[in-house]
Specification:
The chain is mainly beta. It contains 1 helix and 16 strands. It folds into 2 domains: 30 residues; 224 residues, Beta Barrel (Porin), CATH 2.40.160.
């Protein structure tokens, strides 16, 4: 009897320790609640995030409102409203064995994905022309390493003997990406480095054209510096130059 009580006590302590550690782990997971982005001219834009558990419900910003829908724990639809012109774009996502294989937009394009044995992903983007036929816009390969999206290499097409290509690559630190804890977000292959485990302080864009054995290339480097809290989540990002047309050079993160 004494031996049975001893084993029971040891088991109780063990289970309590596991439960405590599990609670500590859950409390360490943060979800992004707000982003304030400031452009070079000093104007700022605020985006608010809404969740149901760790499922993202919506984001609401000065220019856009985005609603997310889930099916079996995966993001199956994203509906974006442009507040300036009230235009709506909806993208529907399809998965096989938990991997994204197809994205279809109401803006008359689709993207097909093939997951390769080396963990890279081949893809092609197709548009619907005026004759209601699918036309390939470009195709490429996505590369991953250590749960980070490291490179996108794409061929833009061959027109009049001129082949154009585009690539963007990312270097990463070892800190937490504020969106990685959002359920299903890392599956969205059309969201580039935002789906990665860590944050990217350096990215490089290379555009090349080839004709008659001559290749002309141009490269642009984009650098950012991050400030982190004690749990290694970013609180601020300062960009030397902006990779997107938005021109935001300072981003603040709130949880």
């Amino acid at each position: 009897m004494k031996k049975t009580k001893y084993v029971y006590c040891i088991l109780s302590v063990f289970l309590l320790t596991i439960y405590s550690c599990s609670n500590d782990k859950d409390e360490s997971i943060k979800l992004l609640k707000k982003i304030v982005a400031t452009s070079a001219d000093g104007t700022s834009s605020t985006t608010l995030f809404t969740y149901n558990g760790n499922e993202i419900v919506s984001t609401d910003g000065d220019e856009k409102h985005v609603d997310f829908s889930y099916t079996d724990g995966l993001i199956s639809k994203i509906a974006t409203v442009d507040k300036k012109n009230q235009l709506l774009e909806t993208i529907e996502y399809k998965y096989v064995a938990g991997k994204l294989v197809h994205a279809k937009s109401t803006n008359n394009y689709t993207i097909n994905y093939i997951h390769n044995s080396d963990d890279s992903v081949s893809y092609e983007k197709l548009a619907i022309n005026s004759g209601n036929q699918e036309v390939k816009i470009y195709h490429g390969i996505l590369y991953f390493q250590n749960e980070n999206f490291i490179k996108d290499e794409r061929i833009l097409g061959d027109t009049a003997g001129v082949t154009s290509s585009y690539s963007i690559s990312f270097d990463y630190d070892s800190k937490h990406n504020p969106l990685y804890n959002v359920l299903g977000y890392k599956k969205l292959l059309d969201y580039n480095e935002a789906i990665s485990l860590n944050n990217s302080p350096i990215s490089i864009v290379i555009i090349s054209t080839a004709k008659d054995d001559q290749i002309i290339s141009s490269a642009k480097f984009y650098k950012s510096s991050f400030t982190y809290d004690v749990e290694n989540y970013p609180t601020e990002k300062i960009s030397e130059n902006a990779i997107s047309t938005t021109g935001y050079l300072k981003t603040q993160y709130f949880y």
